[in-house]
Structure formats: structure tokens, C-alpha cells
Design a protein that fits this description.
The chain is α/β, with parallel strands linked by helices. The protein has 13 helices and 13 strands. The chain has a seven-stranded mixed sheet with strand order 2-8-7-6-5-3-4, with helices on both faces. A four-stranded antiparallel sheet has the order 9-10-13-12. A two-stranded parallel ribbon has the order 1-11. One of its GO terms (molecular function) is transaminase activity.
Length: about 350
Amino acid sequence: MSSRPTPQPGILDIAAYVPGKSGAPGSNAIKLSSNESPLGASPKAIEAFASVAQHLEIYPEGTSRILRLALGEVHGIDPDLIVCGNGSDDLLHLLAQCYLGEGDEAVMSRYGFSVYPIVTKAAGAGIVMVDEADYTADVDALLAAVTDKTRLVFLANPNNPTGTYLSDAEVRRLHAGLRPDILLVIDSAYAEYVTAADYSAGLELVAEAENVVMVRTFSKMGLAAARIGWMVGPAHLVDVINRIRGPFNVNLAAQLAGAAAARDVAFTAELKRHNARWRDWLTAELSSNRLRILPSQANFVLVLFASEAEAETAFEALMARGLIVRQVGSSYGIANGLRISIGTEAAMRRVVEVLKP
């Protein structure tokens, strides 16, 4: 008998999620490591958040109705098919807990979001990691990895940390090749930043199918501190998730701020314009024989160096100039890469000053 409480088998095999580095308190460092909004939050969202200060003693409405109604209004979705969570990570955990168990498998791309393996192991299921085609999810390889044990497929679209994406046609081809009892989770965390004409966030496919769910977040739109995620799925899936999600899992300030941010489509559009301009500029400025910049549809770029040593040297050079970027070796296995969030014009010009060949 153990002398202390023992966690369930497999829990201690999970490597904890490591967030991007932050600057020291009081420092003037520019954080480009966590894909946050370079324009801050919507002023309307800030005002809504602040309005809650006089009502901290009151429980929020338990189903995030205020937020679900706003999302339904803006995106043309039945609010009853929306579930909100304490960040999209909360919802990914819930999906894994509900649809994975001992003996099951979840299929995911090699460089997919690092939370997918965590939630899969936490549910007691096995991870099937599928190699990508030049840092892009490979539909044929994903389908070839499906077995009788497969219960769930994770797809980040666009993907973090690569910024690459699959077209709507490719996502539909992936879905068409899955058994109806396999849940396809489309993680569209960066959908607001996509400019590709052949992209779809997944709403249409969710409406057509019984085994697809789309997960989104407000974190990249200026509300990372508020921790707001949301998902859309068929009624039977929403019913399952609502049975186990925590009561009052989205606080009132987050609900009100999220609702205001969702409705502030002008701010979201400005954020998209700024990102597209400086993402494309940064890509063009840095691309060379020495540096490869993966084509990104997100609010960051992944810079690939000739070697791990060169990536480390570049990371230290950027840090010396007060620019904090994300190393992706330990988390994603891309030791020669640095992920750089799109920031202000000044920040982007400083990055180029340091890295341009």
C-alpha cells in the first residue's frame, strides 16, 4: 500500500504545458511569445468588463447565455448549440473526458497544438501522432492512421505553431474518410486572422454533420486574460458536454467582455487588417537562403533556421534587444524554429533589425 495518494496511471507521464516566456515585472520587454493581440482589447469589451466591479458578490448565469446569444447573433448560430468555457483548453479537456477512455486512441498531427496530447493522456487514451507534409497536416496520413480504436481526431486549422492550414475542401475530405462514430475536433483558434479565400472555420461542416465540433477562443482577439473559449456542435454533443462542465465555468466579467468583443466587428476587422499587413511584411523581409518563414494564416510566423544552434543564437539576440519570442523545440520538436507573434509596427521592425540576413 502506498504511503501517500497515488494519481491514476499515466498522469505522471504527462509533460505539463509550458506557456511562452513573459517579461520580468516592470521591464520594457516586448512579448511576442504567446500570440496575443497587438492592438489590445476592444474598448467596448474593456468597458463591459469594468462594469462588473460593482457586482462581484453575484454568481454569473450558469450557461453563459449572454455570451452565447452574442455569438449566435454575430455568427448566425443557434445559441443552444454553443458551449462556453474557461478558455478553449477547458473545452478540449471536456471533449476528451467525454469521448476518450482506456483503450481508445486520438489521432493528431505531429506539430499540432501541444494541449492535444495532454488531454488525451489525461483521459487514459492513447496518442497516435501523424507526420506532416512539409509542416502541414496531411489528410491521407491522418486517415491512414485511423484504426478500430480511434475515437477522436484533433485538427488545428490554422495550426499552432506552424501557421499552416487546410482548405475547406481538404477538411471535408478528412471528415468524409472518418467513420461516423469518430469525433472530428476542428480547433479554429486563429480563424479571425485567416485571409485565404479557400478557408472555412468549420461552421458549415458542423451544421451538416453529427460528428464534428468547432472550438474557438477570444484569447487571440485581446481577451487572453479573461479566459474565454467557445464551441459549436450538434445537439447531442452539446448535451453531453453540458452534463459535466463546471457550473458557472465562465465568470460574469468574461461573459460580458466576450459578448461586447464579439459584437465589435469593426475592432476585429482592424485587428485582422493590422495582422495581415505586418505578417506579410515580416515574412517578406526575413525570407532568405538562411531563413525559411512558413506561410502563415495565423497571427504569428514560424521562422526556421539552418540549425538548432542558429535558432538559439537568434533567440538570445532577440532577448538582448528586449524581444521575447517562442522556442518550439521542447514543446513541439522543432528545435531549429522560433515562433514570432505579430506585434506592433515598431516591434516588427525591431525583429527584422535583429534577424534580417
